[in-house]
Design goal:
The complex is a heterodimer of chains A (103) and B (227). In chain A, 77% of the residues lie in helices and 0% in strands. With 103 residues, chain A is mainly alpha-helical. Chain A has one domain (5-102): Orthogonal Bundle (Helix Hairpins), CATH 1.10.287. In chain A, helix 2 packs antiparallel against helix 3 (58-90). Chain A starts with a helix and ends in a 13-residue tail after the last helix. Chain B has 227 residues and is an all-alpha fold. Among the domains of chain B are: 1-90 and 136-157, Four Helix Bundle (Hemerythrin (Met), subunit A) (Up-down Bundle), CATH 1.20.120.1200; 192-227, no CATH class. Chain B has helices spanning 14-35, 39-59, 63-87, 103-123, 138-146, 150-171, 179-185, 194-209, 214-223. Chain B is globular and about 65 Å long. In chain B, 19% of the residues are buried. Classes of the chains: A mainly alpha (103), B mainly alpha (227). Chains A and B meet through helix 1, helix 2 and helix 3 of A and helix 1, helix 2, helix 3, helix 4 and helix 5 of B.
Chain lengths: 103, 227
């Protein structure tokens, strides 16, 4: 019943949507980074699901998912370092107070 | 002991039951990440969501991806995020309003996106997909990684190295200790000296900040940096 490509893709889409909402609605920069991680996980799930259900692509799907994970690790490292560097200057993790470039 | 063919009393296949449990756990934890007020709890729920997703990867027949998910996401990124949360915690204000004032617009956009994705997935007839997920053998993945994708693998190593160097450069604070004096103390091994310097700097700053607003002084002590 649920073991079909559609079920996994719908699950991936719902997870991506939750991440999108968090990215748009949260004020805390680290919460926004967590939402980005949720979206990357959703994309990974879609990739692995396509790999598992399309004939002959299982190894490629798993491999591309591993590459996405490595890029996500690099992104998390640099993103959190940027957040900490900004926090050191501005004393707040809230993104709507990082408005000095607008003035 | 052999399990029965289907789940007792319900009649579903085991895969369906496990999929629904893991999917519910993953989506629920992700919702708690997004909707919760407490950011540390959000970080912990994020790790729970990653763990449930690792179970779904096993169900999809990709055990190497599940292992990497546990190692990289739960082990590395989760801990990194928790550390960053604890470094940027302030007592005043930040926990009061966790959403933007225009969060309703974000919710609207998310709902529209969800409906669009549902429509696209359900209305597409995927040509010649399998009925059950095919397992990705780890041997096949490794062979592919070190033959066809070896260049991407090397580039990934360089990217991770660049990310490490960039992260250290961005998060490094400018050292206010006079370099000449530090060289006189001990030229190469800074690690044993560093805590003492930091502690003395913190002490002087705390005495300076004692007249100021107490919350500001607290923030200074936590990070030990220029205000």
């Amino acid at each position: 019943m649920t073991q079909s490509l559609d079920a996994y893709l719908i699950l991936s889409g719902l997870l991506f949507t939750i991440g999108t909402f968090g990215f748009l609605a949260k004020r805390n920069a680290i919460a926004m980074l967590m939402s980005i991680e949720l979206m990357l996980n959703a994309v990974n799930l879609a990739i692995v699901a396509f790999g598992a259900f399309v004939p002959g692509l299982a190894a490629q799907g798993a491999l591309i998912a591993l590459f996405v994970m490595a890029v996500a690790a690099a992104e998390a490292t640099v993103g959190l370092a940027i957040v900490i560097a900004i926090y050191r200057n501005r004393r707040t993790p809230l993104v709507d107070e990082y408005a000095s470039m607008r003035e | 002991m052999a399990l029965p063919q289907s789940v007792p009393f319900i009649g579903w296949a085991w895969d369906d039951l496990i999929f629904l449990l893991l999917a519910g756990m993953m989506l629920g934890a992700a919702l708690m990440v997004v909707l919760g007020k407490d950011i540390i709890r959000a970080g912990l729920f994020l790790m729970l969501s990653f763990g449930a997703l690792a179970g779904i990867y096993v169900l999809l027949g990709a055990p190497i991806v599940a292992a990497a998910q546990v190692l990289i996401y739960i082990g590395a990124i989760g801990v990194l995020i928790l550390f960053a949360i604890m470094l940027t915690q302030t007592k005043s204000g930040s926990g009061k309003l966790t959403f933007h004032h225009q969060a309703w617009a974000g919710g609207l956009a998310a709902i529209v996106l969800a409906l669009m994705l549902l429509f696209v997935v359900l209305s597409t007839d995927w040509p010649n997909v399998l009925d059950a997920p095919a397992a990705a053998s780890t041997t096949a993945v490794a062979t592919l990684l070190f033959t066809d994708y070896v260049f991407a693998f090397e580039v990934m190593g360089v990217l991770l190295l660049a990310a490490v160097i960039g992260g250290i450069f961005l998060a490094k604070r400018e050292d206010s200790v006079d370099p000449g004096q530090r060289d006189a103390d001990q030229p190469s091994i800074l690690a044993p000296l560093e805590p003492r310097h930091a502690a003395s700097r913190l002490r002087t700053r705390r005495s300076e900040a004692s007249g100021a607003e107490p919350d500001q002084g607290r923030a200074t002590i936590i990070t030990g940096d220029e205000p």
